Amino acid sequence: MEVLFNKDILGNALLDYHDGRYSEDIVTLSSLDEQDVIPLPYLFRTFEQMPKIEQRALELAFGKVLDVGCGAGSHSLYLQEKGHTVTGLDSSYGAIEVCKLRGLKSVVHSEIQNYNDKQFDTLLLLMNGIGLAGKLSCLEGFLKHLKELLKPDGQILLDSSDIIYMFEQDEDGGIWIPGDTVYYGEVTFSMEYKGQRGEAFDWLYLDFNSLKECCNSIDLKCELVISGEHYDYLAKLSLK
């Protein structure tokens, strides 16, 4: 079957689900030689269906909130229902349309790196939101940009996973990582949906110590809020 290319795989899938045309899920292909599936119903989950890390992040959110990479808007809508002033931001046009259809009052269609219009009390980057940095070498610049979007007493709430567990361990406890790898958490992904494939993109899975080291170098305070059950964690960043 011929595969057609489409720049907004995620948006098309979210619109289909919202409009009652759900027949299959998004398939992800990665440089780790793994194929996985993103179940579309999961992207429309309620607060009760969210993992503890996401629930905790939403409980900690305060003031004016920017939900970075908002997707179908599940986090934003929960906060809006709780009375927060929240803006959902996503680079996917379809995702933004779904957020509007679901009742989110404030949305922005943009890459976070290109957005600098306002400052916020809380920046949310959930579902491995730090992955938007793409590569470890881009992390410092990415975090500096987020700092510019923060009010003086603001906070950045982000989660990620340390994927070192995915690599082979030898008898001495050492980890075998391919020699051409700059950092083991750098992954290239592409998504497929209904015979269409999106452009490949870089994604970063970041261990907490590397995050903290980078934060220290740019005068950001980095705190571990909670650890999950799958090598994941929630971190809180704030201005020193």
Please give a structural write-up.
Residues 66-157 form the Methyltransferase type domain. InterPro entries: Methyltransf_11 (IPR013216), SAM-dependent_MTases_sf (IPR029063). Keywords: Methyltransferase, S-adenosyl-L-methionine, Transferase. One of its GO terms (molecular function) is S-adenosylmethionine-dependent methyltransferase activity. The chain is of the alpha/beta class and 240 residues long. It has a single domain (4-239), classed as Vaccinia Virus protein VP39 (Rossmann fold, 3-Layer(aba) Sandwich), CATH 3.40.50.150. It has helices at residues 9-18, 52-60, 74-81, 93-101, 139-148, 208-217; strands at 4-5, 26-30, 35-38, 64-68, 85-90, 106-109, 120-125, 150-161, 186-193, 196-197, 201-204, 220-227, 232-239. A seven-stranded mixed beta sheet has the order 6-5-4-7-8-13-12, sandwiched between helices. A hairpin with a 2-residue loop joins strand 9 (186-193) and strand 10. The longest helix has 10 residues, at 9-18. The radius of gyration is 18 Å and the shape is globular. The protein starts with a strand and ends with a strand.
CATH architecture: 3-Layer(aba) Sandwich
Please summarize the sheet with the most strands.
7 strands, mixed
Main-sheet strand order equals 6-5-4-7-8-13-12
- Beta-strand portion reads 25-35%
Radius of gyration: 18 Å
Written as H for each helix and E for each strand, in order along the chain, the element string is EHEEHEHEHEEHEEEEHEE
Note poorly predicted spans. Answer: none
Helix share, percent: 10-25%
Number of helices: 6
Please report the total strand number as a whole number: 13
Q: Provide the residue-averaged pLDDT.
A: 92
Helix/sheet category:
alpha/beta
Tell me the CATH topology: Rossmann fold
Quick one: CATH class?
Answer: Alpha Beta
Quaternary class: single chain
Shape designation = globular
Total domain units:
1
Give the terminus-to-terminus CA distance.
Answer: 55 Å
Q: What is the CATH H-level superfamily?
A: Vaccinia Virus protein VP39
Keywords: Methyltransferase, S-adenosyl-L-methionine, Transferase
Protein name: Methyltransferase family protein
Pfam families: Methyltransf_11 (PF08241)
GO molecular function: S-adenosylmethionine-dependent methyltransferase activity
